[in-house]
Amino acid sequence: AVAAAMFADGSAGSADVGSLWRRARGARCEAKSCQTGPIVTAEAAVQTGTKQEAGVQTEQGAGAAQGSPQEGPADAARLLSFLQRVEDAVIKELSKNSRSHAFDGFEVNWTDQNETVLCLHTLSYPEAQHRKLQVTGVSWNATGAVVACSYGRLDDGDWSTEKSYVCTWNLDRRGLNPQRPDLVVDVPSSVMCLAFHPSQPSVVAGGLFSGEVVVWDTSRTEDPLISRTGMTDDTHTDPVYQQVSWLPDGKHRNHFQLLSASTDGKILVWEEERDGRLVLAEGFALVAQQIPCSIRLKKLTWGETAVGVTSLSFSHFDPCVFVVGVEGGFALQCSTAVRTEALQRPGSSLPLRAPAELAFSSHGGPIYSVSCSPFHRQVLGKQPGNAPYEMFLFSRNLFLSCGTDGHIHLHSLLQAQPLVSVQLSKKYLFCVRWSPVRPLVFAAASGEGEVQLFDLEKSTQKAAVSIKQTPGESPVYCLEFNVQQPQLLAAGDAMGAVKVWQLSSDFTEQGPREMKHLEQLASEVTD
User: Which of 26, 103, 129, 140 has the greatest CB tally within 10 Å of its CB?
Assistant: First the structure.
């Protein structure tokens, strides 16, 4: 009974245990609420409530209240009468102004003026520089965007087995790397000169130390070689040092032949066969006994036969006329129209002709470069019977020459003695080029490491600007103006670099009387 009483059933009230976690979390949420308090808004006007008009024209005059005045027949008649009265006087004054020289020399130029010469790019191929190869030639392609250079040696070295390169850079390419050419062509012999095709931007020709002439297509990166002369009886027996040129083919429109000149005395014209061979189309040979004796040629040894050709330039106005520089130090006027055969030893597949017609006054050493003027002055006149005719004056006959004596000669084809002779360097001058846009400007590459810019309008005896291209006196061997972008001049040197110079407007903008000045220089031949 006692046990039953201790464990009897019973009911008790419910127990409530409060949550400490919910209470703490609620406190945190309240303290760190992410909502802002109630937003109070109010309206405000952003424009004024009143408007005001303002007149932008003057008030009409009293006499114009009925509208704008209209010209009547009487006004038109008075204007016509006035114009008829002054017509003769106005025409007379306009004619007088057209003959006036009051504004000679004044030219409006809307472009920014650049008064300095800047180096835009220094291009090089490290492998060629590591082997101490020199830049022997430079050329711009037909678009003016790509510059090519040839590597070889012009000093001591085993030339006959020296491997070399042809490199190209597209200056318009985004991300141009001056030390990484767009194309590198390996050549088993030193490349002594090169020239881009006049109309095909990717085709370039080169003359080799071995005497060969080679043509590459730079768009074919795997195998750019497209034609070559090979080593035949027609091939040059001496290096093709300074000259390969593209010539228009007179028989086929838009077709070009390739000319090469060498110190073996031969000037050869090649045409391409379908199998990739360059075959001889015609040829010329300079032989001592057939050089005209218009002056005393002290540098010529008459017992010798071949006269070594070191440079060549065609006239821009007569496709048959060209000028060559030779090892004897004199320049020769030549013609492709000659028919006299050269006194040459047999062996060529075609008979060679003797082209020399006139010898000019000698330099003090071998000539390294000649350049014919691309300018002439054209005068329109009347023949008897009032028929028009064209007359080309003296400036078309001008050419430049330079050589080991450090002198530049300005010559006319009409006389043996130079019109101007100036010493630009105490060492050799390796190259001279006439500007394509300034009749009185030319550039020369010196053995003292300078590019000399000459302006005959300023001085006939002193360079206008001397640009130092190389450290010390390392020579500059070659240079070329960019015909498409005449403010650009490329120059290659013995350090293995090509520098692209941007010329100032002084050297690219022709003055209004410049051709007249050139004509005056050229006409001195008649004095």
Answer: 140
**What distance in Å separates the CA atoms of residue 425 and residue 481, rounded to the nearest whole number?**
21
Token pair, residue 408, equals 């530049």
Task: Give me the mean pLDDT over the 331-355 stretch.
Answer: 85
Measured CA to CA, the distance from residue 433 to residue 503 in angstroms comes to 14
Rounded CA-CA distance 113/135 in Å is 32
CATH code of the domain covering residue 363? 2.130.10.10
Q: Which amino acid is at 330?
A: F
Residues forming beta bridges with residue 214, ordered by sequence position = 206, 228
For residue range 121-141, what is the model confidence (pLDDT) as tens digits?
A: 999 999 999 999 999 999 999
Written in H, E and C, the secondary structure of 86-98 is: HHHHHHHHHHHHH
Domain range enclosing 427? 224-380+392-523
Cα(492)–Cα(133) distance, integer angstroms? 11
Asked if residue 58 is part of any domain, the answer here is no
- State residue 36 phi and psi, 5-degree precision: -85, 170
Please report which confidence band the pLDDT of residue 110 belongs to, taking 50, 70 and 90 as the band edges: very low
Q: What domain count does the chain have?
A: 1
- Name residue 227's beta-bridge partners: 215
Does residue 123 fall inside a structural domain?
Answer: no
> 317 or 34: which carries more pLDDT confidence?
317
Q: List, in sequence order, every residue forming a beta bridge with 499; answer none if it has no partner.
A: 122, 491
- Using CA atoms, how far residue 333 sits from 153, 186, 360, 431, 433, in Å, is 29, 37, 8, 19, 18
Residue 313: which of 369, 396, 254 has the closest Cα?
A: 369
What pLDDT score does 22 carry? 53
To which H or E segment does residue 266 belong? strand 266-272
Q: Please spell the DSSP secondary structure of 290-332, one letter per residue.
A: GS--SS--TT--TT--B--EEEEEE-SS-TTEEEEEETTS-EE
CA distance 507 to 105: 16
Residue 461: inside a domain: yes
Tokens 């006409």, located at residue = 523
How many percent of the chain have pLDDT more than 70? 75
CA neighbor of 271 nearest in space, from 254, 240, 249: 249
Residue 334 near residue 304, CB atoms below 8 Å: no
Beta carbons within 10 angstroms of residue 413's beta carbon: 21
Question: What does DSSP assign to residue 84?
Answer: H
pTM over 0.70: yes
The full length of the chain comes to 527
pLDDT at site 343: 81
Residue pLDDT, tens place only, 370-392: 999 988 655 444 444 554 443 44
Most confident by average pLDDT, 5-14, 74-83, 105-114, 169-178: 169-178
Backbone φ and ψ for 460, nearest 5 degrees, come out as: -100, 5
Q: Is 160 domain-assigned?
A: no
